[in-house]
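Handout for the seminar on molecular recognition.
Each group receives one record of this type.
Step one: identify the two inputs.
Step two: read the structure output and locate the region that could contact threonylcarbamoyladenylate.
Step three: write two sentences on what you found, then compare them with the reference statements printed after the record.
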Amino acid sequence: LIRLASPESIAKAAGLIRQGELVAFPTETVYGLGGDATNDRAVARIFAAKGRPSFNPLIVHLADREAALALGRADSRTHEIAARFWPGPVSLVMTRAAACSVSLLASAGLDTIALRVPANPVAQALLRQAGRPIAAPSANRSGELSPTRADHVASSLGDGVALILDGGPCAIGLESTVLDLSGAQPILLRPGGVSRESLEAVLGPIAVPEWSDHPERPRSPGQLRSHYAPRLPVRMAAENVGADEALLGFGRDLPAGAAAALNLSRKGDLLEAAANLFAMLRELDRPGLRAIAVVPIPERGLGVAINDRLRRAAAPRGN
Ligand code: TXA
Ligand code: MG
């Protein structure tokens, strides 16, 4: 499972990424659990391997600055920070570009995307050979510490990953700084490898929400400013559907009569359902309808995260 990083093992890892498999790889901060960011199923696999009970947006890695900036709406501030700190240990949150090819699931349904250009040579070589953006959270199971050595990854994720590239211990050993540049006021979402002071030297004052001092406490997408909720109310565990409702199905034998219907997974596969969730919610969120009715989704595996997301969408609005 663990292979020392070499031209051969990196080529093998790049091939696995292109096939939609998961590969753990070193960055200068911590080891990442990587999958093809443009492949919904590969991204769904990342969430399954992490065993996370909710969808948290993922950092998307690229080999070079221009390719990274093209995926988001980068203003002059963003270009300046990128020129100064990329490649390096900072991730920048931007509004997704209109032509952004990255899976909506990697953004956990948000209108923003976190982008990073790592400096580690193994990460660089993997990204270049894979030839596509790689979504990668830290390569640990949910709730555990971020891994800084290949054997940490093996003991945390085991066979949830096709290959672990061993590039030795991570030089920094602390996660990247997450800086939100999607709004007028820069916000430090997570302290990390690049200091607040060095970012402020370029940007001026950066807002620091009080919860960002607790990097181990995952932020729920509900706390995020640009959080996407469907405009229509969501009705869960629906056993029937009205003629003025959209239906989001799962499995066979669905209630009939909806104004519009999509199926998360006809064969009842939760991985496929997670891969389809955000794109289908958006597609069903049509003007003129009363609600999106969602049939029951099993509360196991990725179903837990899917139901968590649907519950947030179904919760009363207005706050
Ligand atoms: O050093 C690192 O950043 C490592 C290496 C592998 O790159 N990755 C990492 O990823 O720590 P993860 O998933 O464990 O943490 C990503 C952080 C989370 O706090 C997440 O909420 C935030 O970045 N994040 C990602 N996309 C975001 C977005 N669109 N808006 C706000 N926060 C976002
Ligand atoms: Mg993490």
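Reference statements: The first strand starts at residue 2 and ends at 4. Residues 27, 29-30, 32, 56-59, 91, 93, 107, 110, 112-114, 116, 136-138, 175-176, 178, 189-190, 219, 224 surround threonylcarbamoyladenylate (ligand 1) (CB under 6 Å).
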